[in-house]
Design a protein that fits this description.
Blueprint lengths: L1 H16 L5 E5 L6 H8 L3 H7 L12 E5 L4 E3 L5 E8 L6 H8 L3 H7 L13 E7 L12 E2 L9 E3 L6 H7 L4 H7 L13 E4 L17 E5 L6 H8 L3 H7 L12 E5 L30 E7 L11 H10 L1 H22 L4 E7 L7 H7 L7 E3 L4 H11 L6 E3 L12 E3 L4 H15 L4 E6 L5 H9 L4 E3 L9 H5 L8 E6 L3 H14 L5 E4 L14 H6 L3 E4 L11 H10 L5 H18 L4 H7 L4 E2 L4 E2 L1 E3 L5 E3 L3 E5 L5 E3 L2
Helix pairs in contact: 11-20, 20-21
Length: about 650
């Protein structure tokens, strides 16, 4: 009864000041917080506490809360009604840009946020946006509908992927407020579901669609965190050139803006273009952005298998669960990377989750954990999961790094593949052979003579001798000996993933190397080369050389990471711990050397090199970034793996 009287008195009091204020109820769900509820309903914590004093002691599941609806009206000097929307200021936003997005003016925003007459916008602050009520006489139903038909009637617009209210409004030459007036169901929401059909003004019959306005131009929707530098990288236009084409961006770029840009010329990069070595860049000397980096990590810890009350069972679980061990090793390297970054003045806030927690959706996980302004996501490890994560976060342009997979999958604009794909490794090896094979006898051993790769190799090296296996996938000594030149160096390229072909060829080549100069190469060191029947001694005798995304590390050499790892954990790091360190430290340095990791990827002209891994992120034609940094390594006679180039 006491609470009811309080609520009634509040309604009466607020009703005097805000005639259209109304209330609704909300039942608290598991995992919800005060912050998530206030964000969901766009209200302040003070409003929530005023109506629900018990919340100050903590939220309890199934508690029913009283929620004020945020739409309020006041009188303006023109005797018209004004409604308001709360807007949270993002980094680099301007008053002009916000006013343009909401179809109002700078003066109107300042009028209802008087502190802006004397102070600048601050990132994260919430301001009131006045939205004048718009009355539009329209024959259309005001309800937003879902369409299953591909053909739309005039006056309807089907929302495509990544479209925003600002972009849609611009297409039909109306303001966001007018679009919301036509579609009340989208009022107060920043996100519109793909496939939703909106009411829009009818276009004139003789009006050309935007994309037909000029065959030399197309339209691009600005993504979060994209600025003029990013536009120059994407389209080759300076800030002045872009503003000349788009006068409405005179005060800066804003997420959701639709801009006019020249169409890109079609055509793919020629397949014969190969990768050449890049210069080494040390990012520790170019740090400029010391804002706290918000890092989210997904690793397969498989916590559901951990027994809370049994240390012995957990130790046994770790021994038998290779996935769990890999995740823990990777994480130990990441922890040291964050410590090294802090020593450089880079503050890091790391949120770590089990990969299973992505199953319910990454965005919903972020909301339930109150994680905002994410600068980078590393993981999950599995390609399907990391692709799904990148897909879900692409609309917010949050970068996602795939740490341990190089499989060619679907690319997204925010997806960063940290392990070079097989084609990049192949190109790098062929580039090395092209530059260094002059005067050598070239021999190609393969069981795939008609494949596109083999044809490419034959085109690059006219006259190369091709040797195929016998039926049954094996070689006799004379099969390969006939191609060997005793008077010169013989460079043999072995291209196969068949275990019988690989083991037989290496056995014969090792025998022939006793009286001939032979060096063995491959563009693809696949599992067949690691088969137990393939002797490492034979590979060492043949100076086996191949492309690799990582290299072995000589632990006898002095290294800060190795020393710190030994001090902290009492053992040497394995390749997964080293990978965790290298990829995390590089990413943090990149974010600290530019506004964000995307800008850093575009600006860095060279390779960044760490303990066992190096990085050179290059934009992919399908979207996202690939790591083009590749080592050329070979076995030595002492069974060591050394870097050739």
């Amino acid at each position: 009864m006491k609470k009811l009287i309080l609520v009634l008195s509040l309604i009466f009091y607020t009703g005097l000041c805000f005639p259209q204020t109304s209330y609704m109820s909300h039942r608290v769900q598991d995992g919800e917080t005060v912050f998530s509820i206030t964000q969901k309903y766009q209200i302040s914590e003070a409003d929530l506490f005023r109506l629900n004093p018990e919340v100050k002691k903590g939220l309890k599941e199934n508690t029913v809360l009283i929620i004020p609806k945020v739409l309020e009206t006041v009188s303006n000097p023109d005797n018209g009604e004004v409604s308001f929307k709360t807007h949270k200021v993002k980094r680099k936003e301007t008053i002009f840009g916000i006013a343009t997005a909401y179809g109002t003016s700078v003066e109107e925003i300042k009028k209802y946020n008087k502190h802006l007459y004397s102070s600048e916008l601050r990132r994260g602050e919430k301001i009131k946006i006045p939205l004048k009520k718009v009355t539009i006489i329209s024959p259309y139903n005001s309800a937003v509908t879902q369409s299953t038909s591909e053909e739309l009637l005039p006056g309807k617009h089907k929302v495509a992927s990544q479209e925003t209210k600002f972009g849609i409004a611009k297409q039909y030459n109306i303001s966001v407020a007018e679009l919301e007036a036509l579609n009340p169901s989208i009022y107060g929401s920043d996100d519109i579901s793909v496939g939703t059909v909106l009411n829009v003004p009818k276009k004139s019959i003789d009006e050309k669609p935007l994309e037909e306005e000029d065959s030399n131009y197309t339209f691009y929707t600005v993504k979060p965190k994209e600025g003029f530098y990013r536009m120059k990288v994407l389209f080759g236009l300076t800030e002045e050139e872009l503003k000349a084409l788009n006068p409405h961006i005179i005060d800066g770029l804003k997420e959701g803006m639709v801009i006019k840009v020249p169409k890109a010329t079609s055509g793919e990069t020629p397949s014969e273009v190969v990768i050449t070595p890049e210069r080494i860049i040390n990012l520790e000397y170019s740090l400029s952005n010391f804002e706290t980096k918000n890092l989210v990590v997904f690793l397969p810890f498989e916590l559901q298998k951990i027994q809370k009350d049994s240390l012995e069972l957990n130790e046994e679980q770790l021994k038998n669960n290779s996935t769990m061990r890999l995740a823990l090793d990777f994480y130990t390297g990441m922890l040291i990377a964050t410590e090294f970054a802090k020593q450089k003045g880079i503050s890091v806030k790391m949120h770590v989750f089990d990969s299973r927690e992505t199953e319910g959706g990454v965005l919903s996980l972020f909301r339930s954990k109150n994680i905002q302004d994410v600068d980078l996501v590393i993981g999950p490890l599995r390609q399907t999961l990391v692709e799904r994560t990148a897909s879900e976060l692409s609309s917010q342009n949050i970068p996602v790094i795939s740490p341990l997979s190089n499989r060619q999958g679907k690319m997204y604009s925010n997806f960063i593949q940290s392990i070079p794909q097989d084609k990049i490794l192949e190109n790098r090896m062929l580039s090395y052979l092209t530059a260094n094979s002059t005067g050598k006898k070239l021999i190609l051993i393969t069981d795939q003579p008609g494949s596109s790769k083999i044809q490419r190799i034959q085109n690059l090296f006219p006259g190369i001798v091709v040797i195929k296996p016998r039926e049954g996938n094996f070689f006799r000594t004379e099969d390969i000996a006939k191609g060997i030149n005793k008077e010169t160096e013989n460079w043999v390229l072995l291209e196969s993933s068949n275990i019988s072909v690989v083991s037989s060829a290496i056995g014969v080549l090792n025998s022939l190397s006793r009286s001939n100069s032979i060096q063995l190469f491959t563009t693809d060191k696949n599992d067949a080369f690691d088969f137990r029947e393939v002797s490492n001694m034979h590979l060492a005798n043949l100076d086996f050389t191949y492309p690799s995304w990582n290299k072995g590390f000589d632990f006898t050499k002095e290294n800060d990471f190795i020393n710190e790892y030994q001090t902290r954990y009492g053992s040497l790091p394995n390749r997964f711990a080293t990978r965790g360190f290298d990829i995390t430290y590089d990413a943090l340095l990149r974010m600290a050397s530019a506004d964000n990791i995307f800008d850093a990827n575009e600006a860095i002209d060279g390779e960044t090199v760490y303990v066992e891994n190096k990085f050179n992120y290059v934009r992919n034609a399908q979207g996202g970034y690939n790591n083009n940094a590749v080592y050329i390594v070979k076995y030595t006679k002492e069974l060591l793996l050394v870097e050739v180039e």
